[in-house]
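User: I've been trying to design a sequence by hand for this structure and keep getting stuck. Would you show me what you'd pick, starting by listing the structure so we're on the same page?

Assistant: Good idea, let's start from the same input. This is the structure you sent:
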């Protein structure tokens, strides 16, 4: 409530007394620290050097030596959900974020839209005198809103952030990212050939935002949420960093787990006597085959060579990003800000198993339900980490980097999915240096901690809406507590993609159920019980010894689930969840018309040609030497493109980046007006659900090329590479031209894409007439 005006108002201003108090903006409390939250993706507890892992993290080592390393800090086990807890301080289902944004399903806990009763930390800090910056990944904007004309109600600037620079989706190509600055889509400022990598760009942008703010408002504290693309796929890094790890993972993921647990115990991360849990701990009738781990000694020499290289690239990616973050830390130190900056350096879930048992050179195969091919992967071994691959290591490394726990990302009931690194650094506010903390906490506690440190409270009401209370427990008490002092947290539920767990006062119950299987039958799930205060790896099932404790925890889970909108549980396969029909800002139609000189249209709102027949028709006027992209959608890892080259019309459908590119080419075109395009007639489904059919390439009303074609039924990419007319943004769909290959030598009036059942020739004149009218 603003203050009432206490001045005097007369007819003449000379007889009046001003009162500025009601109009002054709030200031942060005296001495309030800056806040820097660095949130990596997909990183198990056993990955990084401060925890005993082989991945060198020089910046994080430096912060750990002067800060606190937490060993029992947890997350929701998946990206969007964890990030929502950082954003609002509420549990993920209460935020409507019980699943990633691509899997929302229209129930309260899974709507993908943060309710008004869950205001954000950005909004609260803005209203408390802070500058607020968001750098890097978002993944909390509904898919249908990711467009130039879409609703901006959940974009960062509407969620309490003064500035945003990064990407809105779940992942992006690190060499060719899908970038947004504030409220608009932009292209990367320079190319990989000129030294570009997203990790470098994000560090530059974070420094620039903070430096600009300090130049104009040096007394004002800031909150920066820094979200690098690492360690999410694609794993991409400069070759000199990859070379540093050559041979370091040749012993394999079985041996790594044993080696790293010994190191974790030596460092005090894990207590003596902690046991390794087995690979593939779920029974065959419950397990997800895509998450199986092949024993290292069962692999061929080629597989060992490939899998080791994939781990080397991952490690390089993580370290390179950490080094770039180090430039931000160096800047804070040089500018005198590091002392009073509270830093949380952490990860959003366990290591990722989305690479399948065989690893992948294109992670999008996982989301299309399409298997990887060992020979294809081996053919790319020397270019792993470059722009030529979209690689991801196999499940064995996910389990190894999440040691000593069971499973990995998505498995919320096990610590392999939810126990993550967290290091806190704040010289001005934490006396202890280089110490370990074993108190049990969760990502939902971070907002409560920040507010407690600053000395402000979350408002009971925000913009006229009564607020949902914060369930988090401030971690501030642990800053100067003994390493093994009791935690002040008492209960935390876990639920993700059909998996369930509950921790309460040192005990944990876990439902034995795999995610993304479609098994259902949740009432038949068997529950295990662990006393995690003494069994940190959750290796001993005590359900038979303590049935009453297990029942207590199951009942607690049910109460927490009902209070936080966890039901209904959903374990449907990834492809099924990713292709759910969702309300769109634009009503569905059978014909979509696109024009040149517009920003790339994100896949979430572009025409959906997946799993169906479709036609593309373009209206062009060609001059001699005309060339360039007419239409492109996707990237080299999945997509299709219509382009002119060497005087000929070409259509390429790049199926999941698997060579060879499916190419259909015309003879030489004459100058003048033409209707050019293609038609795909879907005739059947392939072994893995892919569309099988016939492609016809047209120039005017003539078929100039024809042949069999297969097409994806899942997304072209998760990185957001959009639909373009007159150019190809980011990474090119086809290797037959280089980015952006703009259309030149004539006039491109527009492109129509039709998904009706009508034939191409029946639509040609109608589509061209529509283009001419616009």
């Amino acid at each position: 409530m603003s203050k009432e005006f206490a001045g005097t108002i007369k007819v003449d201003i000379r007889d009046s007394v001003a009162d500025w108090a009601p109009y002054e903006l709030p200031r942060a409390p005296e001495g309030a620290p800056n806040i820097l939250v660095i949130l990596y993706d997909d990183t198990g507890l056993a990955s990084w050097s401060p925890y005993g892992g082989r991945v060198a993290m020089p910046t994080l080592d430096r912060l750990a030596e002067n800060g606190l390393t937490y060993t029992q800090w947890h997350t929701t086990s998946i990206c969007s959900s964890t990030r929502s807890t950082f954003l609002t301080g509420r549990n993920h289902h209460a935020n409507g974020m019980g699943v990633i944004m691509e899997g929302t399903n229209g129930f309260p806990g899974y709507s993908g839209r943060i309710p008004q009763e869950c205001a954000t930390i950005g909004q609260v800090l803005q209203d408390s005198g802070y500058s607020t910056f968001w750098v890097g990944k978002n993944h909390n904007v509904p898919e249908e809103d990711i467009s130039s004309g879409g609703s901006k109600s959940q974009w960062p600037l509407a969620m309490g952030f003064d500035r945003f620079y990064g990407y809105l989706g779940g992942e992006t190509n690190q060499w060719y990212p899908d970038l947004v600055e504030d409220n608009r889509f932009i292209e990367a400022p320079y190319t990989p050939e000129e030294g570009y990598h997203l990790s470098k760009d994000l560090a530059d942008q974070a420094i620039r935002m903070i430096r600009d703010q300090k130049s104009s408002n040096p007394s004002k504290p800031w909150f920066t949420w820094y979200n690098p693309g690492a360690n999410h796929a694609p794993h991409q890094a400069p070759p000199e960093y990859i070379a540093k790890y050559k041979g370091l993972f040749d012993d394999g993921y079985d041996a790594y787990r044993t080696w790293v647990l010994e190191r974790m115990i030596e460092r005090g991360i894990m207590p003596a006597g902690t046991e390794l849990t087995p690979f593939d701990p779920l029974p065959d009738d419950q397990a997800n085959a895509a998450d199986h781990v092949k024993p290292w000694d069962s692999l061929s020499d080629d597989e060992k060579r490939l899998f080791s290289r994939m781990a080397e690239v991952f490690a390089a990616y993580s370290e390179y990003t950490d080094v770039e973050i180090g430039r931000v830390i160096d800047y804070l130190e040089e500018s005198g800000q590091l002392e009073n900056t509270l830093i949380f350096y952490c990860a959003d879930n366990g290591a990722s198993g989305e690479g399948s048992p065989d690893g992948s050179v294109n992670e999008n195969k996982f989301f299309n339900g399409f298997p990887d091919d060992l020979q294809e992967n081996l053919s790319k071994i020397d270019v792993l980490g470059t722009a030529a691959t979209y690689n991801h290591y196999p499940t064995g490394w996910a389990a190894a980097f999440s040691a000593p726990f069971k499973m990995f990302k998505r498995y919320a009931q096990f610590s392999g999915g939810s126990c993550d690194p967290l290091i806190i650094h704040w010289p001005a506010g934490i006396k202890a240096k280089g110490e370990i903390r074993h108190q049990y906490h969760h990502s939902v506690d971070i907002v409560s901690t920040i507010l407690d440190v600053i000395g402000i409270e979350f408002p009971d009401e925000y913009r006229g809406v009564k607020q949902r209370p914060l369930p988090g427990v401030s971690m501030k008490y642990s800053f100067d507590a003994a390493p093994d002092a009791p935690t002040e947290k008492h209960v935390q539920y876990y639920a993700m993609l059909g998996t369930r767990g509950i921790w309460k006062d040192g005990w944990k119950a876990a439902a034995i159920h795999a995610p993304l299987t479609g098994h259902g039958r949740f009432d038949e799930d068997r529950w295990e019980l662990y006393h995690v205060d003494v069994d940190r790896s959750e290796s001993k099932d005590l359900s038979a010894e303590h049935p009453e404790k297990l029942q207590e925890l199951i009942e607690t889970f049910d109460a927490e689930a009902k209070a936080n909108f966890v039901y209904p549980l959903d374990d449907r396969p990834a492809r099924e969840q990713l292709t759910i029909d969702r309300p769109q800002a634009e009503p569905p139609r059978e014909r979509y018309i696109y024009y040149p000189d517009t920003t790339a249209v994100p896949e979430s709102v572009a025409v959906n040609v997946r799993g169906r027949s479709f036609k593309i028709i373009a209206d062009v006027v060609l001059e001699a030497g005309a060339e360039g992209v007419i239409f492109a959608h996707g990237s080299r890892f999945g997509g299709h493109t219509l382009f002119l080259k060497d005087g000929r019309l070409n259509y390429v459908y790049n199926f999941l980046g698997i060579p060879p590119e499916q190419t259909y080419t015309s003879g030489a075109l004459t100058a003048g007006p033409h209707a050019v395009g293609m038609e795909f007639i879907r005739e059947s489904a392939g072994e893995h659900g892919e569309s099988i059919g016939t492609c016809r390439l047209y120039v005017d009303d003539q078929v100039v090329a024809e042949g069999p074609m297969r097409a994806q039924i899942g997304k072209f990419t998760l990185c957001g590479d959009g639909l373009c007319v007159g150019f190809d943004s980011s990474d090119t769909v086809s290797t037959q031209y280089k980015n952006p290959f703009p259309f030149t030598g004539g006039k491109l009036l527009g492109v129509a894409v039709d998904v009706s059942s009508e034939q191409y020739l029946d639509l040609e004149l109608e589509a061209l007439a529509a283009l001419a009218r616009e």
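That's my pick for every position. To get oriented when you compare it with your attempt: The mean pLDDT is 95. Residues 177 and 679 are 30 Å apart (CA to CA).
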